[in-house]
Every structure is written in C-alpha cells, then in structure tokens.
Amino acid sequence: MSDAQPFSIDDARPWVTPPGEDTDKYGRGVLGVVTGSTAYPGAAVIGVDAALHTGLGMVRYVGPPRAGDLVLARRPEVVQGIGRVQAWLVGSGTNPDQLDDTTREGFDRAREDGTPVIVDAGALGVVRTEARGILTPHAGELAKLLGIGRDAVAADPLSAALRAAEQTGSTVLLKGRNTFVVDPGGAHRFVCSSATPWLATAGAGDALGGVLGALVAARAAVGSLVPADLAHLAAAAAVIHGTAAVRASQGGPFTITALAEQIPTVIRALVERNRGV
User: What is the CATH number of the domain that holds 43?
Assistant: First the structure.
C-alpha cells in the first residue's frame, strides 16, 4: 500500500454533484443499468437501489423480465428500456455465456455509446471500454482477467490493478478489505480502507456498482470526464460505500438494503461540508 495514496471520506467531497436550483431530472444524470439475470435477479435490485439512494435523476434498467419485475417492485420510479444516458453500469449478476437477448443488446449499447461505463462481474472482458471505463473486479475476477493465480493478486493487489489498467486502458477498482483504484497511466493510485469487515457479504459489490454509477452519471451530466476524474469518482464511491456500511453496521451484522438506506445520510454530510454548514 506504500505506493497508493489513502483516500478518505473527506476526499470524496468534491466528487459529489448535488443538483442546482434549476436542474431537471436529466441534468441530474441518467444511469443505464444492464445487470442481473434470471438466476441472479437480486444483483439488479441491489445496484439500482444503491444508485437511487446515491442521488441522480433517473435509472434506465435493461435486463430479463424476472429481474426487471423485481426492480420495479422495489423501485417503481425506474424506467425500463434503452435510452439516452450519461453513464452505464453493466455486468453485475450476469453470466457472459448465458446472456438473454435484452442483456446482450444492453451490453452492445454500452460498448458503443461513447459514455463512461462501469464494468463488473459477467461483463469483465466482454464489454471493452478503454479510457472511458471503470472495471470493478474482486481478486478472483482480476486474476482471471490477467491470466494469473488469485494468490498472486492477493500478494500484491496494487501491482495487479496497475497491470490490469495498463492492459485494458481503463481505470481499475480492485475490491477488497482494502480497495485499490488506479488509472490507466498509473498517475493516480488510491487505497480506500473505510469499510468494516462486516461488509464481506453477498451483494456488497452490486451496491458499490450502483453508488459508482450514480456518481459518474451525475458528474458526466455537467461535463465530460477524463480517466483522472474516473479514478477519483471510483475512490469516492468506495469510501461512500464503506462509510455507509459502517453506519449500517454499528459494530455488528447488517443487510445490504440497510447499507443503501444509509447512503443519503453520507451524501448529505458531504454536501453540507462543501457548503460550510
């Protein structure tokens, strides 16, 4: 970790984009979400829920009917179908060998759209994004992406993340107890250690994807983004996610839905600090 700069919750303040007095829902950011599957519909529900709790104007969900029905049951404000977005979140809860036609169409749109893309799980290695992408693997997924053993990633996660960023041309967020974020050139290297060990639970990565997607879409709605911006947004998402987990945990176990419910409090505190409240 000696070559990575610690990134704290206070460092996340400049990367939260609150709405202005005259901002409409489109100006607040629209996130396209292509996640979940018939086998793992919960990944879609968790990611969408976390994104909306983080704060943006709209989520467009693209995925199989079962996942889509559950998403709407949890968050009826979601719009289904492909449309104009400021960023995409793709891959959580999907299997690249078993994609339905709707998910495949969503992957294609995210690949071709020219907007920032957060790539997770089943989309890693499938949706190639180069400089406009943020890859969010855990150690096993990164090992597969690099063609090395998981133990090698665990032994030197920063080096593995840097290698992946160099090979893919994308920003890499390597999830773990210590989350590492690096940009393609290696100029920005962050380590985020704000989470609680209780966060090692199913669905945590899906929620992180939603937080990150919302932050990126909201910032992209007000201006174009470069890889350095994406690295800072990724680190900001990691510490917001971790801080919300600590609040939900209070020293004990918690559910991912409880984490999502704490995100607005974390965001509000950051906005208030920016305003000097």
Answer: 3.40.1190.20
